[in-house]
Design brief:
heterodimer; A: elongated; B: alpha+beta; Nucleotidyltransferase, domain 5; Actin, Chain A, domain 4; Substrate Binding Domain Of DNAk, Chain A, domain 1; 4 domains; six-stranded mixed beta sheet; five-stranded mixed beta sheet; 26 strands
């Protein structure tokens, strides 16, 4: 199984600009209207390669995040209200639909 | 050799363009006009009219004329047109794609005349936010018109292609496309020859027509306030009011006030009632502001889907006739903190981009790579766990909106109840969490599942969405390899069988061959070659209905003798009469202040 980086012809530590340039070069080689299957593979590889960047960023974020995260009670309350409201509406709708 | 063209099939106007020797241009009709009004009608002899000739009679004969058919595309709405002067049943009804086929056929003819070659292939544009059914209807219309539809292309994407940036630096461009009946916004990233759409959003039912309609109601209200009675609710009067509204809208794009003089809109006893008033630009702006605010919200969603801020945009391109309205420009500019670029041809750039893409597809030497997205999410109806218990009917998205096309995605679902033998796969398109609130695309059943505890049977649902907007759904029972397949696009009314297509083509041929001269460029038999004179005659005909009896008679006489002179090709008499007509219009027509 080829890795996204291999498919795009990149080294594992390619920069975002390099990833994009490699993706564009592959697009020119395999335009979607002529090579739909290759195009899908290239696009998936591009998405995965870009994801790689942000996944790494997430990991970094986890490392520096304080252990006791304080949850905003007001936001929680809002979220709860919205959820209940949504459920109430759909229940009502369901009742109306049924009868 | 036959040629491939690009077609912008618009709500109000349509254009056809082509690439020749690397240059792209819009092809004019025989009357010299680049735009063909998207209007179809029958004259009092039952002859088909397409374009300006049809538009000219729209206010006088609304029962024989249809406009803005694009708003009905993808539905089974029937347009009833009176196609013969008399007879036992003088009406015929048409489906939206049949009317669109007439417009496309006229454009095909226009291109063939201009190029002196057969035209058999086309890229046709649609609003980015069009649903699958609307796209399919457009494709079918093209096929009825005798065109092989190479691709259905999104309008804002086409406009971006036509915007020749071609710098190797990456630029982010927002295309704001407000036409006669539809609105799209697309966020596009352009790097050299690669044009990549990051996100699209829009509204299929918002455009200049809605502004006209609001203004029409406003005029009716003015009339009611002045005369203490409502404007008569007959089609001709309402069509006149609508036409007045359109003219006011256009005037207000360049003037602060627009005069209104519509004579004989109604009567009270023996007194004729006229509408004489003035509409200020600010009045019009107050009417349309709420609609434009919606477009700003769409901009925000497109930006957020593209994971960009307004500051990240390098350029803003305005496309579509309605972007001529100063308030539109101002609101977009205020909202994004940046002025739109100058020099874009809002009416033509979509057709130009379509022609470029057609060139790419048939292998012309055009350096353009396009990556576009799907505007609506695709998924199935499924049950989910909630704090209230299991709730069925949730929309489970398999291909999220703004995914790059072509695309394939799968999700795995499990059976809900013990010994469940049947699973219904219902496919929807849209953004609502409740499946039923979205557009249904089709459904099928998987039957004969073996008895097993709830949740133990797993079914993989695979969606494959291709460049032509065709969705193929495949289901596989995990571990069994039992397959079900559905080509979603083949369901629905807009897809014709080959015999139906042949019949539709024959019907269209019959309409067109009965009088070639009245279609294509959309001109009458005695149509002068001179565009200026044509314009003059058109204005005179529009004015006719709003003039007092005596003046109207004079004008009619003048038009009649002009028509005779034209038919007899008496050049000297024609130019004499033309001057006379021009003077007449100058004194009789209401002037913009």
């Amino acid at each position: 199984m080829t890795s996204p980086y291999e498919l795009l012809g990149l080294s594992a530590n390619a920069s975002p600009a390099e990833i994009k340039a490699a993706y564009h070069a592959k697009l020119k080689e395999f335009p979607a209207h002529r090579h739909p299957e290759q195009f899908k593979a290239i696009r998936a590889a591009y998405d995965a390669a870009r994801q790689g960047e942000s996944a790494a960023a997430d990991e970094f974020f986890f490392l520096v995040r304080p252990l006791e995260a304080t949850l905003d009670p007001e936001m929680l309350q809002q979220l709860r209200q919205r959820l209940t409201a949504q459920l109430a509406v759909s229940l009502e709708e369901m009742i109306r639909e049924t009868f | 050799m036959s040629r491939a063209v690009g077609i912008d099939l618009g709500t109000t106007n349509s254009e056809v363009a082509i690439v020749e020797d690397g240059q792209v241009r819009v092809l004019p009709g025989e009357d010299g006009e680049l735009m063909l009004p998207s209007c179809v009608g029958f004259d009092d002899q039952g002859q088909l009219l397409v374009g300006r000739a049809a538009l000219r009679q729209a206010a006088a004969a609304p029962d024989r004329t249809v406009r803005s058919i694009k708003r009905w595309m993808g539905t089974d709405h029937k347009t009833i047109l009176r196609s013969e002067g008399s007879g036992s049943d003088p009406t015929r009804d048409f489906l939206p794609h049949e009317i669109s086929a007439m417009i496309l056929r006229a454009l095909k003819q226009r291109a063939e005349t201009a190029l002196a070659e057969a035209v058999t292939q086309a890229v046709i544009t649609v609003p980015a936010y069009f649903t699958n059914a609307q796209r399919q209807a457009t494709k079918t219309a093209g096929e009825i018109a005798g065109l092989e539809v190479l691709q259905i292309l999104n309008e804002p994407t086409a406009a971006a292609l036509a915007y020749d940036l071609r710098s190797e630096e990456t630029e982010r461009v927002l295309v704001y496309d407000l036409g006669g009946g539809t609105f799209d916004v697309s966020v596009v990233e352009m790097t050299g020859s690669v044009t990549e759409v990051l996100a699209s959003h829009g509204n299929n039912q918002l455009g200049g027509d809605d502004f006209d309609r609001r203004l029409q109601l406003h005029l009716a209200e003015r009339f009611r306030q002045t005369h203490g009675m409502a404007v008569p609710d007959d089609p001709v009067t309402q069509a006149r009011l609508l036409r007045a509204a359109e003219q006011i809208k256009v005037t207000l794009s360049t003037h602060a006030f627009a005069p209104v003089r519509e004579a004989f809109l109604g009567s009270k006893g023996k007194t004729a009632l006229h509408l004489e008033t003035e509409i200020a630009r600010t009045d019009f702006e107050a009417l349309i502001r709420p609609l434009l605010t919606e477009t700003l919200e769409a901009i925000d969603r497109a930006l957020s889907d593209a994971k960009l801020q307004a500051e990240d945009l390098d350029r803003i391109i305005l496309v579509g006739g309605s972007t001529r309205i100063p308030l539109v420009q101002q609101m977009v500019q205020d909202h994004l903190g940046q002025a739109p670029v100058e020099g874009v041809q809002p009416d033509l750039s979509v057709a130009l981009g379509a022609a470029l893409q057609a060139g790419v597809l048939v292998g012309e030497e055009i350096d353009a790579i396009l990556v576009d997205v799907i505007p609506h999410s695709l998924g199935i109806s499924a049950a989910v766990d909630t704090p209230m218990g299991v709730m069925p009917g949730y929309f489970s998205v398999i291909i999220p909106r703004n995914s790059v096309v072509p695309v394939s995605r799968s999700e795995v679902y499990a059976t809900l109840s013990p010994n469940q033998a049947v699973v219904e796969i219902e496919i929807f398109q849209g953004e609502n969490e409740v499946a039923e609130e979205n557009v249904p695309l089709g459904s099928y059943r998987i039957e004969g599942l073996p008895p097993a505890p709830a949740g133990s049977i797993q079914i993989e649902v695979h969606f494959d969405f291709d460049l032509n907007g065709i969705l193929t759904v495949t289901t596989t029972e995990k571990g069994k390899g039992k397959q079900g397949k559905l080509m979603v696009n083949h369901a629905g009314i807009q897809r014709l069988s080959s015999s139906e297509l042949q019949q539709a083509r024959a019907n269209l041929d019959a309409l067109f061959t009965s009088d070639e001269t009245k279609t294509g460029s959309g001109v009458r038999v005695s149509q002068p070659a001179d565009a200026e004179l044509a314009d003059l005659i058109e204005r005179a005909q529009q004015l006719l209905s709003s003039l007092a009896d005596q003046q109207a008679e004079e004008l009619q006489e003048l038009l009649d003798s002009l028509e005779h002179a034209l038919a007899a090709a008496e050049t000297a008499t024609v130019s004499e009469l033309q001057e006379e007509l021009s003077d007449f219009l100058y004194y009789a027509a209401p002037h913009a202040t």
